[in-house]
Every structure is written in C-alpha cells, then in structure tokens.
Amino acid sequence: MRARDAASRRIGQYSLYLLMLLASSAAWSCAAPLAAHRPDRDKSTSRAEDVRAVIWRDPGPMASLNLLYGAGGKGHAPNPRGTFSFLREDPQATSPKFEVVDAQGVEWKVKLGEETRSETSAARFLWAAGYFVDEDYYLTELRVTGLPKLRRGEEFVSPGGTIRGARLERKLKDVDKRGTWDWFDNPFAGKQTLKSTPREYADSTFVEKVTPDDVDLVLHSRPFFLTAIDVPNYQMRTRIEAITRKIPRADARWLGRRLSLLSDTQIGDGFRAGGYTADEFAVYARALRKRIAELKAL
Which H or E element spans position 247? Predict the structure, then answer.
C-alpha cells in the first residue's frame, strides 16, 4: 500500500478488516501483509524505518472513481490482446506466480488460481474506501511467449502459451517496497481506519453480534482442518478470524457511510473488473449493498 501521497487522515486496521469482509470472505489475502512503500528516491540512504505509517488517503469524490479500472486507471491497464514475454517464475509465493514484460516494456506480476478474480474485485473496493492498493487487472486470457513448463499452475496453461484467468499486477518504477507491516503488529492497531460462489456469499451471515459499543462480524477464512496441510497458514487464518471481534461501531458506521456513496454502476464495475459474469456480479452487488447498509445502520 503506497505512501506516496500525503494522507490527511490515518485510518487503522478495523476499517480494513471490515472492508475485506464486505468484499469477500477470502479477500483478506489481497491486502495481507500490509505493505509499506515509499517513493524510489535515494536507495542508498533510505531505510525501512523511514517509511511513513500511512495506509489511507482521501481518494476524492466517490462519484469520480472508476472501479472498472481501479487505482491504475484505464491508461495503465494491460492490453488484453497483447503479447507478453516470460521473465521468471516465483517459486516462493503461496500461489502460482511468474513475471512477464509487455511490448511497451512494462513488467507485470502474474498470479494464477482461485483467488485471482476475488482479489481483483476486492482491491477495487479497498481503493474506493481510500486505501492504497496495487494496480491489479484481471484477464480471462493472457498470451505469453517463451513460457516454460511451470512448477505450479500448469493446469491454467493451454497449448501455445495461453493462460486462462490471470491477475496482473503492474510493477511501478516510482515505488520502492521497503518492508511490510504485520497484521497483528503494525502502527495502525487500535485506530479507526470474492468468494467465487455468489449464492453462498449472498446467503452468508455478516453481522454476528452487536453491543452498544462494538460489533462482531463473521469471517470464514480457514480451510477445513483435515485439509490444513500448511499448518502455519492454517494458524494464521485462524488468528485472522479472531480479529473481526469487538470492532468499534463508530468505525463500522464510518465505512458503511462512505461506501454507501458508491453507485450501482460503480459496484457492478468493481465485480466486472474481476471477470465475473452479469449473473454473478448481480448477486454479489445486491449482497454487498446489503452489507454496506448493515454497517451504515449500526
């Protein structure tokens, strides 16, 4: 989450958790861990502790935001009919990922797998709420030349180097990633700050418990425990679920009021950006609007 621009207000982790719950029960992964970025000025003298603890800024009038293209806008969007050249695979990432370069010399991080659509859409709503996000775009097909046999994600590759369903993150030259903020140990603690089955998302419970001061929300992030082969990941997701308890009602109300300013077209565009069909995003949009209303009414 880039701290290039001066932020007039610092918003803490509670609103971020709320927003991810609104967008998707799986969308936490698109923003965790919280990334600290700074302008790429003098790398020889920059230090991680110099990064400003800012994850929120006023994005301007809500009606002016284009959720179809998000933070990067249409001008930074990849050419869906263009050809991309393979650079390298990332063997350390938790999901299948590799890097490519397009005909204009722009480098992109490509992610494959189930989360690509939900993460792209969730990033649109994070951005609309005022949080810094990466410039992500979803392509139903991606043509890559020089593509070797991938260690992971080969099931998404068709003959001739055509990739099915990819999220592309634009690599920005004016941003230098200096480190990360942990979910549970960060400068925003204590401060205000897609799922791909539409019917399950629409039918799922959002607000679990309301008290005069706090609200408990429902987040199902853990895999079924008998399939939890990655124990550290399972433990982290268990902890993630716990942080949706005792969220200040004022924070929840603030986010609900802000997102209620989005038009139906903007909400639909947020889901279109993730490659969802008209029938799918119609269900998601109604469910999201209902969740926003629940927060606004707290």
Answer: strand 247-248
Residue pLDDT, tens place only, 231-250: 555 455 555 566 677 777 88
**Are 200 and 194 contacting, i.e. CB atoms less than 8 angstroms apart?**
no
Quote the crossing angle between the two packed helices 115-129 and 264-272, to the nearest 10°: 140
Alpha helices in the chain (DSSP H): 13-23, 115-129, 198-203, 231-242, 249-259, 264-272, 278-296
Number of helices (H) and strands (E) in the chain: give both, helices first: 7, 11
Overall pTM surpassing 0.85 (yes/no): no
Question: Which residues, in sequence order, are CB contacts of 261 under 8 Å at separation 6+?
Answer: 62, 63
Question: Phi/psi zone of residue 122: left (φ > 0), alpha (ψ -120 to 50 degrees), beta?
Answer: alpha
CA distances, 16 to each of 20, 62, 88, 230 (Å): 6, 18, 32, 25
Categorize the per-residue pLDDT at 185 as very low, low, confident or very high, splitting at 50, 70 and 90. Answer: low
- Contact of 66 with 33, CB cutoff 8 Å: no
